[in-house]
Amino acid sequence: MGVFASRLPQVKPGEKGSAVLALQLGLRQRGYGLVGTGNYQRNTEAAVRDFQRKSGINPSGIVGPKTWNALLADTYTASDIGVRHRPQVLPGSRDKRAVDQLRTYLLVISPYQGASGVEDWYGPRLQGMVRDFQRRAGIKASGIVGPRTWAALGRAVAVTGAFSC
Question: Which of 28, 39, 42, 76 falls 20 to 30 Å from 109 in CA-CA distance?
Fold first, then answer.
C-alpha cells in the first residue's frame, strides 16, 4: 500500500481536484459525513483532523503519506483494480466491456451508489454521472472518459475501499 500512497499528492485546505475528491470519498466510506465535492473546505479539514487523531497522526489537516497510508489500509491499490490501459469511452459508445467497467467504478462511489436505471450503453444517465464526477474531480466535464477520468475514478475507488481485501 505504501507505494500507492506515496504517489498520491499532498492535499491541504483550500485545494481542489481529484485527490481531494478521493480523500472525501475515502473519509465518507469511513463514516464521515462528507459529500465529495472536490473542494477541501472546513468540513473536510475537520474530518481529516479527526481521522488523523484517531489514527495516531499529528492532526495537521494536511494529508500526506502517513494519512494516505492510514486511509488506504485494507484496500486495493489503483493498479490492483486495473485502472491502467482503459479504453477511451465516448458518449453513445456501445462497447460493452468498457461501459461495464465504467459503470462498475461509478456505482461504488458516492453519490452514485445504488443508482438505478443506468443504461447498458454510454447513454444520457451514465454520461450525466460521468460529467458530475469530472466536475467534482476538477476535470473538464466533457463526458469523454479518457486517461485523466480513469485515473481519478481509480483513485476514488481505491481510497474508498470499495473493492476491499
Answer: 42
What nine digits make up the cell of 118?
Answer: 443506468
- Partners of 63 in beta bridges: 11
- pLDDT, residue 57, reads 93
How does pLDDT run across 68-89, given as a tens digit for each residue? Answer: 988 877 554 444 444 445 788 9
Residues 75-105: b if buried by 16+ CB within 10 A, e if exposed: bbbbeebebeebeebebebeeeebbebbbeb
Which is nearest to 159 in space by CA: 16, 36, 13, 12?
36
Q: Whole-model pTM above 0.70?
A: no
Measured between alpha carbons, how far is residue 23 from residues 17, 93, 99, 116 in Å?
10, 30, 25, 25
Q: Is the peptide bond before 13 cis (omega within 30 degrees of 0)?
A: no
